[in-house]
Design goal:
Strand content: 5-15%
Largest sheet: 6 strands, parallel
CATH class of the largest domain: Alpha Beta
Number of helices: 13
Number of strands: 10
Order of helices and strands: HEEEEHEHEHEHEHHEHEHHHHH
Oligomer: single chain
Helix content: 25-40%
CATH architecture of the largest domain: Alpha-Beta Horseshoe
Length: about 350
């Protein structure tokens, strides 16, 4: 910022972590060292915009997003988090609770918080301390949700999280096929997700499970295994996406892409639809081409949109009432997709 404003006359080539154009050449400087103590960072400058406009009904009513950590403890083949952030770093529980207090006072319309950490449960002691501080501060009157690994939670932790206000936990499984789980370096057992979802629902917490189609080795048979598993598991909801190749990931090494724009959006760019970005088949399997993968994903998404409504109508109707316009738009997108 100082360089752009003219306060700093330091040569560009000496500033780490930037890229700039010199004549016709693109110059990249060495990367900047990682910030180890995230507590030194200021809160997001929400006040530079009309932030009340952004306090909207999302996964939870009148929600505000909070990022309490960067990165993840694992290295799944499809995920860019570990590559982008390099290592897991976290803000202290005290710093997070201080931000929650500040937000609750500055934006009294807010009713809930969305933790956007890639993996909220990396450090158990940190989660426990955060929950106790939330309870002590009386902030457990707010709902909140987070993303967690199924093998990092148990009954004691879930009970404490429930007392602290958590109302929904998102778990990543991706596939119920042990072969696919191994291929994507998930390092998670199907039994772990079964146990975690059961305990989560037992404590009155909604459980969403992330699933994918199209990862390396995928076939109609492995997809059927995943579908049948989710039907038996009966999470509150499941969200299905298509495996995408992101720069720096293991999938990118297995299938390098030079022209992302044309690879991602042809022929889909001629038939756009809502949520296109997360549903475009990008990894080629010998048993499934792109169009087959897309159509299978569409069929599954349509099926489970109504399956969860039938198996857990109370939770689904509650979410529809929280955000009726978005819910309707999503359902229409499923019905209208080519």
């Amino acid at each position: 910022m100082d360089q752009l404003s003219g306060k700093n006359k330091q040569p560009l080539k000496t500033i780490k972590g930037i890229a700039y154009k010199k004549q016709k050449n693109i110059i990249k400087t060495p990367p900047r060292p990682l910030i180890q103590n995230l507590d030194i960072l200021p809160y997001p400058a929400r006040d530079v915009v009309d932030f009340d406009y952004y306090i909207v009904d999302q996964l939870l009513p009148k929600a505000i997003e909070i990022v309490g950590s960067r990165g993840c403890s694992h290295r799944c083949a499809f995920c860019s988090s570990a590559h982008f952030w390099q290592m897991w770093r976290a803000r202290s529980p005290e710093n997070i609770v201080a931000e929650m207090k500040y937000l609750s006072q500055k934006y009294p319309r807010a009713k809930s918080f969305l933790f956007y950490d890639d993996n909220f449960t990396v450090n158990r002691k940190r989660v426990e301390q955060l929950c106790r501080l939330i309870i002590k501060a009386g902030l457990n009157r707010y709902q909140w949700n987070c993303q967690a690994r199924a093998d990092q939670v148990d009954a004691d932790l879930l009970k404490l999280m429930k007392q602290a206000g958590v109302s929904k936990i998102n778990y990543g499984l991706e596939s119920a096929s042990t072969k696919i789980i191994r291929n994507i370096d998930k390092k998670l057992k199907v039994a772990d997700i079964k146990k975690a979802v059961g305990l989560t629902k037992k404590f009155g917490i909604e459980a969403l499970v992330y699933m994918m189609v199209g990862n390396p080795g995928e076939s109609p048979a492995t997809i059927k295994t995943s579908v049948e598993f989710i039907k038996k598991l009966k999470p509150t909801s499941s969200l299905w996406s298509v495996a995408q190749i992101l720069p720096g990931t293991k999938l990118h090494q297995l299938q390098p892409i030079k022209d992302y724009v044309n690879y991602l959006y042809q022929p889909e760019i001629n038939h756009p639809y809502l949520y296109t970005w997360s549903f475009i088949p990008v990894f080629e399997n010998k048993n499934l081409n792109r169009e087959q993968t897309k159509q299978l994903h569409l069929k599954i998404s349509r099926y489970f949109a109504f399956y969860h409504l039938i198996t857990d109508p109370f939770s689904k109707l509650k979410h529809i009432l929280v955000s009726p316009a978005k819910s309707l738009a999503y359902l229409l997108s499923l019905l209208n997709r080519p």
